[in-house]
């Protein structure tokens, strides 16, 4: 039979262990759910600023810019003097035994400084430096692309929350109108001037509208969580967004927008910089066939202890020019040039394709703005007409000239019109934000 070992822990010790466990669990929970110092309310501009400061992709892109700047310093070093210091100490045994038959030792000490300065590399250093500077510009353009993408994402998420709030208000208003109509139908029934059927129909209308309000509230929660995620903060952290879905009339000119985009779109600048880098790389490899000319110099201080000979320090130096001409490198340079030419053609093709794609994108966004603008105007007029129709239907019902179904139809038309109007304004504002992204600016032209 197996023996069982039972450990008895005093109650005082159990209490201490329990306290420790609670502290550890609280600490783990604090780590898992960090409290972020975020304002309780945000405007759109504040939200964009906060998103740009907290986005991890932007941080990575900024580090890439720093890396590119270090590459410039590395490339520039090839044009600066190269100074090296070397010190040697040697001990030789039986240095002269072969010739004199005597066993003799020798000690040698030396210290030397060597200087190399490129006089002319016929394009190697200059092209490497130019390529490094273009790499910095490329990294900065990629950073700009990331910032603009984040700006558009947070702007769209901001308007998504405003739309969700507006749809909650529309559904809440529709439910309140239906409840008011139900009370009116109930009162008419109690007074004997209305039928039970009309009252039940009004009550059913109320019940049918409640799920819509629940769904609208859920969509608002999801929109807020998505907004928080883009800000890199906990989804449940409450933030009040200050703003409204407001229609501001703006009609873009596609030709003007495209001209602005060609000058400012960072993704187009990236394609142009990639082509320039490919051109520089080709010139750099072509310089592999050209000679190199260096200024060289050396100063050496040496002491030799050898038998009975003097062991004074002897200083020597030299200065001159070193000319290097590559004759054959196993076709390495030829292969590099061939690859660079292919890369250049690839970059040119990408630029042509990118320009065409960007032009179509700008024109399509302008068309979407025009379409959204027309829908907003139409939806706004529909809201006015539907509101007037509902008022007339309620008055007619109270006077016995309309049924509950007429009021429900008028109410549905108003809810639909207000929903369409809110969605149209949302689509219009998002399209304007998309146009800013397409032209590469924070403001519309």
Textual characterization of the structure:
- The protein has 445 residues and is an alpha+beta fold.
- 67% of the residues lie in helices and 13% in strands.
- It has helices at 11-32, 44-54, 56-77, 97-100, 124-190, 196-230, 254-264, 266-286, 332-398, 404-439; strands at residues 41-42, 82-92, 106-120, 240-241, 292-306, 313-324.
- The strands form two sheets. The chain has a four-stranded antiparallel beta sheet, with no helix packed on it. The protein has a two-stranded parallel ribbon with strand order 1-4.
- Helix 5 (124-190) runs antiparallel to helix 10 (404-439).
- It starts with 10 loop residues before the first helix and ends in a 6-residue tail after the last helix.
In short:
The chain has ten helices and six strands, in the order αβααβαβααβααββαα. The chain is α+β, with helices and mostly antiparallel strands and 445 residues long.
Oligomer: single chain
Distance between the termini: 89 Å
How can the largest sheet be summarized? Answer: 4 strands, antiparallel
What fraction, in percent, of the residue positions are helical? 55-70%
Low-confidence runs of at least 5 consecutive residues:
1-36
Provide a count of the helices: 10
Structural class, by secondary structure, is alpha+beta
Mean pLDDT: 83
Portion in strands: 5-15%
Rg computed from alpha carbons, rounded to a whole number of angstroms: 40 Å
Give, in order, the helices and strands. Answer: HEHHEHEHHEHHEEHH
Large-scale geometry: elongated
User: How many β-strand runs?
Assistant: 6
Biggest sheet strand order reads 2-3-5-6
């Amino acid at each position: 039979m197996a023996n069982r070992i039972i450990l008895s822990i005093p109650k005082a010790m159990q209490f201490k262990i329990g306290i420790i466990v609670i502290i550890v669990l609280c600490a783990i929970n604090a780590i898992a759910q960090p409290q972020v110092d975020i304002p309780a309310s945000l405007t759109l501009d504040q939200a964009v600023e906060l998103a740009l400061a907290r986005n991890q992709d932007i941080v990575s892109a900024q580090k890439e810019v720093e890396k590119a700047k270090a590459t410039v310093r590395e490339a520039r070093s090839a044009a600066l003097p190269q100074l090296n210091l070397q010190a040697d100490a040697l001990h030789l045994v039986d240095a002269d035994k072969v010739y004199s038959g005597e066993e003799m030792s020798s000690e040698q000490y030396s210290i030397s400084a060597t200087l190399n300065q490129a006089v002319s590399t016929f394009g190697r250093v200059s092209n490497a430096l130019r390529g490094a500077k273009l790499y910095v510009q490329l990294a900065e353009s990629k950073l700009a692309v990331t910032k603009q993408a984040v700006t558009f994402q947070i702007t769209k998420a901001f308007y998504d929350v405003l739309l969700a709030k507006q749809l909650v208000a529309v559904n809440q208003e529709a439910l309140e109108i239906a409840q008011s109509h139900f009370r009116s139908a109930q009162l008419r029934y109690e007074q004997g001037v209305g039928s039970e059927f009309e009252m039940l129909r009004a009550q059913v209308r109320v019940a049918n509208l409640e799920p819509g309000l629940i769904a609208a509230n859920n969509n608002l929660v999801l929109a807020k969580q998505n907004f928080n995620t883009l800000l890199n903060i906990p989804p449940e952290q409450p933030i009040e967004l200050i703003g409204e879905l407001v229609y501001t009339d703006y009609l873009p000119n596609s030709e003007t927008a495209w001209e602005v985009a060609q000058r400012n779109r960072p993704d187009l600048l990236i394609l142009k910089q990639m082509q320039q880098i490919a051109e520089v790389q080709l010139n750099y490899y072509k310089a592999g066939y050209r000679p190199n000319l260096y200024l060289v110099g050396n100063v050496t201080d040496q002491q030799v202890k050898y038998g009975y000979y003097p062991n004074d320090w002897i200083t020597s130096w030299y200065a001159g020019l070193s000319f290097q001409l590559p004759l054959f490198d196993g076709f390495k340079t030829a292969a590099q040039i061939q690859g660079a030419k292919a890369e250049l053609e690839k970059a040119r093709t990408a630029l042509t394709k990118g320009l065409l794609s960007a032009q179509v994108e700008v024109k399509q966004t302008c068309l979407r703005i025009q379409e959204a603008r027309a829908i907003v105007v139409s939806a706004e007029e529909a809201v006015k007409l539907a509101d007037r129709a509902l008022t007339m239907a309620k008055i007619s019902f109270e006077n016995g000239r309309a049924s509950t179904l007429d009021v429900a139809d008028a109410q549905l038309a108003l809810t639909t019109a207000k929903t369409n109007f809110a969605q149209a304004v949302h689509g219009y504002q998002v399209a304007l934000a998309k146009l800013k992204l397409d032209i590469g600016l924070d403001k519309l032209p």
